[in-house]
């Protein structure tokens, strides 16, 4: 991304940054009470969420959505406004009415947002807040104020990525929040956006991820900044090479994850057009290459820096924070990467096996009282041939009955999260894959559909739990 000349010329692993705008410390005082943003629907198993600059107009979100159908966005960036105080861009309150209205409008249109903390400019909160408790308070204020289910941490730059104390403090604060939200039935997905080389993550970035695991933080996604390597190269191939290298690196940290789960743990973020190292140019052809690769591999997220650059400059080859410097039509990169986004809504799924799903004790997976109301319990019950036990296992990864999807309550990923029926919305909470034996696995959580307490009593709720291969996690699907 565009940043100061001194940083732009450095041939270092890719980094994101704020555009060249003044970062002004806020007073840090209490702000007037403002209503929190409305809850969002969450995210599909694959989606595009470009970075949108919070120092620019919130209207860009609506404009991009209207032009391309893009409906997921990453808010860049939340940094310290002075004195351990989370703000947009260092000078705008998280409760800003314009951004809250834009977020609400996007969610009403079926979209959602991620807040990204960090970036290359300003002071990163993990360094500004000196204790785990203080940092946790700031994160919680943003998460609750924006009603977030997903947060991104763009940790980059000398003195930041290698700040072991801040990395540990950040991971501890996030692990505690994640556990507290899970206990309250809420989901908090955490992802890291990190500088990379085409050969994979450098050691400082790997150390950060290892520390996260050691602190019992569940990392949902690792997003590569596929930009600013130094010399000219094929930027599409560099992005896919980096993704392939990351797949192996993640497997050495999270050793129990399957091949598909590791791909689903990836994100990829190029800088569109002319990069800060101007010999590098990420073209629309490169975007097509990366999008096709991501779709084929099951990479969860594509993004780019930045939404405000998604248009042509007056002349090609220009490095600017308001245009790409490469040949393109308006919003072309947004349109291309949005091709990875999974569909939501209640349209019928692709064809798949339809019939009973039988489990523990030969009983059937059943919708309580044959009700298709959102939130209806999914349970074990005597097989009776009713429509409440007629499931379609779609080729899109959904499992459907009564026109709705098998869903995890509040998009939870913790052990004990209950299964329910809900409007199909394309989120990861409604994705299922056949695992080892006859297990049914939710790839986002990595956990198995499970009969609570191994009980065969009618009405026993289904839930997810760490896969153990027991009889209460075996389900025979329709052919």
From TrEMBL:
Q: Which InterPro entries match?
A: GH (IPR017853), GH18_Chitinase (IPR052750), Glyco_hydro18_cat (IPR001223), Ricin_B-like_lectins (IPR035992), Ricin_B_lectin (IPR000772)
Q: Is the keyword Signal in the record?
A: yes
Pfam families to which the protein is assigned, alphabetical? Ricin_B_lectin (PF00652)
Where would I find the GH18 domain in this sequence? Answer: 45-344
GO BP annotations, alphabetical order: carbohydrate metabolic process
Signal sequence extent: 1-32
SMART domains for this protein: RICIN
What top-level branch of life does the organism fall under? Answer: Bacteria
Q: Which UniProt keywords apply?
A: Signal
The name of this protein is: GH18 domain-containing protein
Native organism is: Streptomyces liangshanensis
